[in-house]
Amino acid sequence: MDRRSRSGFTLIELLIVVVVIGILASIAIPKFGAMREKSYVAAVTSDLKSYASQQELYLSNMYTYAPSVAALPDLTLTANVTLSVNESSQQGWAATGTHSGLLTQCGLYFGSASSANATPATIPGVVTCN
C-alpha cells in the first residue's frame, strides 16, 4: 500500500487543532466565571427587592415590619441565597443577603434603620453589593 493513498490527519494538523481549542478555552472559562458571579449577584439583589416588597405588605397588615425572614410566608428565596434581618422596627428595617457561591454581600435598608446594619448599603431603598 502506498503512503500517499492513506487518508487521515497528520500529527501537525492535530497539534494545531489542540492548540486552537486550548486558546479558545483559556478565553471562555474566565468569561463563564464572571457571568456566573453576575448571575449570583442578580439573584441576591432580586431576593432583597422581593423581601422589601413583602415587608411593605407585612407593614400594611401588622403596622410594623417583620422581625425575620421566616415571618414572611409568601417570600420565596432563590436556591443558595441567605437573607439576614439585622434590624426591624415600626420605623424601618435593615437586611443583608449572600449567595453560597459568592464572597460578596449585598445590603438594603429602609426607613429609620441604620445603614451599618445593611453594610454595604448607604442609600435607603437601594440594594448595594460590595
Q: How much is the radius of gyration in Å?
A: 25 Å
Overall morphology = rod-shaped
> What's the mean pLDDT score?
93
In N-to-C order, the SSE pattern is: HEEEE
Structural description of this entry:
The protein has one domain (10-129). The longest helix has 52 residues, at 11-62. It has one helix spanning 11-62, and strands at 81-88, 92-99, 105-111, 128-129. The model has no long low-confidence stretch (mean pLDDT 93). The termini are far apart. Helices cover 40% and strands 19% of the residues.
Gist?
The chain has one helix at 11-62, and strands spanning 81-88, 92-99, 105-111, 128-129. By secondary structure, it is of the alpha+beta class.
What's the SSE blueprint?
Blueprint: H1 11-62, E1 81-88, E2 92-99, E3 105-111, E4 128-129
Antiparallel strand pairs: 1-2, 2-3, 3-4
Overview features:
single chain, 130 residues, alpha+beta, 4-stranded antiparallel sheet, 4 strands, rod-shaped
